[in-house]
Amino acid sequence: MSEETAIFAGGCFWCMVKPFDTQPGIKKVVSGYTGGDVANPTYEQVISHTTGHTEAVKVTFDPAVISYKQLVQIYWQVTDPTDAMGQFQDRGASYRPVIFVKNEQQKKIAEESRNKLENSGKFTQPIVTKIESAKPFYPAEEAHQDFYKKDPLRYRIEEMGGREKFIKKHW
Q1: How many domains does the chain divide into?
Q2: What residues form DSSP beta bridges with 29?
Q3: E strands of the chain, at which residues?
Q4: 15 is an active site residue
Q5: Is residue 23 situated within a structural domain?
Q6: What angle do CA 64, 65, 70 make, to 5 degrees?
Q7: What is the domain-level CATH number for residue 126?
Q8: Which positions are catalytic residues (predicted)?
Q9: Domain range holding 150?
Q10: Options 12, 66, 98, 99, the catalytic residue
Q11: What is the pLDDT of residues 89-146, one digit of tens each?
Q12: Rounded CA separation 112/51 (Å)
C-alpha cells in the first residue's frame, strides 16, 4: 500500500481535520504550522503573527483509494476561496487559504482545479487561494491534534462560526 501527503491551510486547523479524516483512504491528518521562517514554532508564536507560519493540516493518504485531485475538491468545499486574510471567524495571515504543493504534479492538479472553480461562476468574487511550494511542516502541540474528537462541543461551536453556513450556501 503506497502513501502520499498533501498540505492544506484554510483557517483554524481544528476545523480542517474532520473533513479529510472521515474519508476512505485517509491514514492520518496532523494539525500543524508551515510556510514560516521559525523552526518548531509554538502555537503562541504562530498566533502572534510574527513567524510567518500558517495553520495547516498534513494529510497522509493512500492514492489507490483517494486521489490528490479528490482531496483538493474536498478542500474547496470547506474553505472560502475568496477570503485572502483568514477564514470565517479566524482572521489574519496565519489563517490564510493556501494549498501547499510538494511537486509539479500536485501543483498542476491544484492550479487546474482553482482555474475550474474560478471559471465556474460559483463565486462572484475572485478566487484568492494561493498555491505555494511546500515548506517544512511542524506538527502542532498534542492538545491541537484530533480536536474534533477531543472536544466535540467546542469544535461544533467553532464550526458554526461561519464555515458550516458557507458550505451550505455554496455547495
Answers
A1: 1
A2: 59
A3: 4-9, 26-34, 54-61, 86-87, 90-91, 98-101, 130-133, 137-139
A4: no
A5: yes
A6: 105
A7: 3.30.1060.10
A8: 12
A9: 4-162
A10: 12
A11: 777 788 899 999 999 999 999 999 999 999 999 899 999 999 999 999 999 998 889 8
A12: 30
